[in-house]
Amino acid sequence: MKILAIESSCDETSVAVVEDGKKVLTNVVYTQEIHKLYGGVVPEVASRRHIEKITYVLDAAMTEAKLSYDDIDMIAVTAEPGLIGSLMVGVNAAKTIGMAYQKPVIMVNHIYGHIYANYLESDFLFPLVALVVSGGHTELVLMNDHFQFEVLGETLDDAVGEAYDKVARVVGVGYPGGPILDKMAKLGKPTYKLPHIKLAKDSYNFSFSGLKSAVINLSNKAKDRNETLDNNDLAASFQDAVVDVLVSKTVMAATNYNAKQVLLAGGVAANSGLREKMQEAMDQLKIRLTYPSIKNCTDNAAMIAVAGYFQAKAMK
User: Fold this and answer.
1) Per the CB 3.0–4.6 Å rule, which of 4, 150, 215, 300 could disulfide with 142?
2) Given the DSSP bridges, would you call strands 74-80 and 2-7 parallel, antiparallel or unpaired?
3) pLDDT tens digits for range 134-153
């Protein structure tokens, strides 16, 4: 089964063709660099860029795959969650192709796509726990089989990626903040006392607004006293607090649900500090840890194609 997938939930316009949920025939991604000027994604700008680029990305993907639309069996498209205007561009493109070539169109959840990005590189062992960490989402998800999702916990306020971007703005290092702070953290030490917010002892939920506020308050107090903070140490302290919470919650879920595998998913899954600490924890528990390659951590259509493949199988 060859699935044509379209992803346009935020600021990447991507089209992929994946065969049988595993073999990537093409995966073209156009990233909107313009948002760096604004320090974050501007929804109206994002949707306009998608409109401008979607046909070009479609053509590039089909040319690279050496396929025609007649060769496609199904179309998968990100339908939620995401920026409404951006999502509409992808959905309308998918529906148009579906009507023109009489192909079924399946609506895919973006979060499921991030989870299934792992399947492009590794098979799944059930039961498994997936930690989804990105600019808009922070969730712990239990899977007992393919396309069976149970959300165990989620953020009560800021997503972890959003917290990274806001802290990066305070430090003054640019956007996107995650990769920059990760590199800075390697050069510093966690010398500043910041809260490791774990909520109730048995809770799988997350909260990062207090940590973000603590960094802002620390920065403001330093300015009032004409003191200079070591930004590398601040990045290390912030990342230490974030990673500690993410790892401890994942360990608790994996232990309580007898997980055979833990997945990292989403843009923040590319974070080297998170990967290292999670690997140490899973090695101790003797639980298999997998995470996508860097290129598959960020938004792309190949992951939507894989999720669409298993969603179609689940619907039969």
Assistant:
1) 150
2) parallel
3) 988 999 999 999 999 999 99
Q: Is the dihedral of CA 192, 193, 199, 201 positive or negative?
A: positive
Q: How many CA atoms lie within 13 A of 142 on its CB side?
A: 17
The helix (run of H) or strand (run of E) holding residue 102 is: none
Q: How far is CA 60 from the centre of its chain?
A: 24
Please give the Cα distance from 187 to 107 (Å, whole number): 43
Mean pLDDT of 32-41: 82
Residue type, 205: N
CA–CA distance, 269 with 294 (Å, rounded to integer):
8
d(CA 122, CA 109): 20
160, two tokens:
């972890």
- pTM for the model: 0.94
Residue 105: partners with Cβ closer than 8 Å, 6 or more residues away: 74, 75, 76, 77, 94, 95, 98
User: φ and ψ at 175, to 5 degrees?
Assistant: -130, 145
Contact 28, 316 (CB under 8 A): no
Q: What is the pLDDT of residues 154-189, one digit of tens each?
A: 999 999 999 999 999 988 888 888 999 999 999 999
Quote the DSSP letter at residue 93. H
In the chain, the domains with their CATH numbers are 2-115+297-315 (3.30.420.40), 124-291 (3.30.420.40)
For residue 59, report the phi and psi dihedrals to the nearest 5 degrees. -60, -40
Measure CA of the first residue to CA of the last residue in the chain; give whole Å: 14
Residue 288 and residue 282 in contact, taking contact as beta carbons nearer than 8 Å: yes
Hey, what's the torsion of the CAs at 164, 169, 172, 176, to 10 degrees?
60
Cα–chain center distance at 283: 23
> Which strands, in side-by-side order, build the sheet including 12-19?
23-31, 12-19, 2-7, 74-80, 105-109
Residues 218, 234 contacting (CB under 8 angstroms): yes
